[in-house]
């Protein structure tokens, strides 16, 4: 069995972060979301991966390399535009050959891995096997409709009027039969080749499609709220570790990780939290569910329930929370007078200001 990992897409809901960074490489607990998926694939015993990439190929390739660090063999497959999940299968046809494969969306996060899913598929070998979970707003996802016996009878991509609250989780398993379905597809109203349409084709053609409703944790890390929630979840399971330097005037409470080269001085850190390699925390408070990446500086400030990407600095700011701060950012207080807000914002930003 091979894996097809989708690591293209523009990540519009994470702008302006994704104007300069691949959405799959935005970190949770100081590790890119994509890496959690690669580790899950390797743990399931799969070694060969086709990585579908787009405009951020150079960045993805620099981070993942040839896959050796994960125990994988990675082949990069260029997708000229994000034309749908089924289009990714189409361009990977030669790479996949006659092998069964798992398709894994690189910005999805699933607790518990995919070992059981892969084992079940290898045993039963339906034409397709999908995972479903109940969501609050199914209009944002592919949606499955089940009959009274729990069998999949219809799938629809981001329906305006959903038939159920069961969304497709971003992990699919296929036999080579799916290539017949993909070859028959026409672009949807969104202008994309939809994997839901391919699976629907298999159902209507009498092929066996299996599903399971998962009760574990799953997130499509498509926006800031989801990123912060996944960061919270991962930090919940960290074990405290002190590899950096903490002075006698500082206090660490709970599960706190201080990575090599980091320094904490005259500060209070309440876990779960992680302080990245080479970061400096000075005269500050770092609250629960916060990830401070490598090379950052937090000085005379308070921050909680946030993600700070590498080499950023926060100085003299009284309180930051529920924030995602990008690479090489400087956060400082505004001048005391005149009373005004001075902003330098990327395209498509969203800002909330207390007047």
From TrEMBL:
Domain Nucleotidyl transferase span(s) in chain numbering: 2-235
Cross-referenced InterPro entries:
G1P_thy_trans_l (IPR005908), NTP_transferase_dom (IPR005835), Nucleotide-diphossugar_trans (IPR029044)
Report the CDD domains cross-referenced here: G1P_TT_long (cd04189)
PANTHER family xref list:
GLUCOSE-1-PHOSPHATE THYMIDYLTRANSFERASE, THYMIDYLYLTRANSFERASE
The record's section on NCBIfam families has: rmlA_long
Q: What is this protein called?
A: Glucose-1-phosphate thymidylyltransferase
């Amino acid at each position: 069995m091979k894996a097809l990992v989708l690591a293209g897409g523009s990540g519009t809901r994470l702008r302006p972060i994704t104007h300069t960074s691949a959405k799959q490489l935005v970190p949770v607990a100081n590790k890119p979301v994509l890496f959690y998926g690669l580790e899950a694939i390797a743990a399931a015993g799969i070694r060969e991966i086709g990585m579908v990439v787009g405009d951020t190929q150079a960045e993805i390739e620099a981070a993942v390399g040839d896959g050796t660090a994960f125990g994988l063999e990675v082949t990069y497959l260029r997708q000229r535009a994000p034309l749908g999940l089924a289009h990714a299968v189409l361009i990977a046809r030669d790479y996949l050959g006659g092998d069964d494969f798992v398709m894994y969306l690189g910005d999805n996060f699933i607790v518990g891995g995919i070992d059981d899913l892969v084992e079940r598929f290898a045993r039963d070998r339906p034409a397709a096997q999908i995972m479903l979970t109940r969501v609050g707003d199914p209009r944002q996802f592919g949606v499955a409709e089940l009959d009274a016996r729990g069998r999949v009878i219809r799938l629809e991509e981001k329906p305006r009027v959903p038939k159920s609250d069961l969304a497709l989780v971003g992990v699919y398993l296929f036999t080579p039969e799916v290539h017949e379905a993909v070859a028959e597809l026409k672009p949807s109203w969104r202008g994309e080749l939809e994997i839901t349409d391919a699976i629907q084709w298999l159902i209507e053609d009498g092929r066996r499609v299996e599903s399971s409703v998962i009760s574990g944790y799953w997130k499509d890390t498509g926006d800031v709220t989801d990123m912060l929630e996944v960061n919270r979840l991962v930090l919940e399971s960290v074990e405290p570790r002190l590899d950096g330097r903490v002075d006698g005037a500082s206090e660490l409470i709970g599960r706190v990780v201080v990575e090599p080269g980091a320094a904490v001085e005259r500060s209070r850190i309440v876990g779960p939290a992680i302080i990245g390699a080479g970061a400096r925390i000075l005269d500050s408070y770092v609250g629960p569910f916060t990830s401070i990446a490598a090379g950052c500086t937090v000085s005379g400030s308070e921050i909680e329930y946030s993600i700070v990407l590498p080499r950023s600095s926060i100085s003299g700011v009284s309180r930051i929370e529920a924030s995602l701060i990008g690479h090489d950012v400087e956060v400082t207080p505004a001048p005391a007078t005149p009373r005004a807000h001075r902003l330098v914002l990327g395209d498509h930003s969203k800002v909330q200001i207390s007047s």
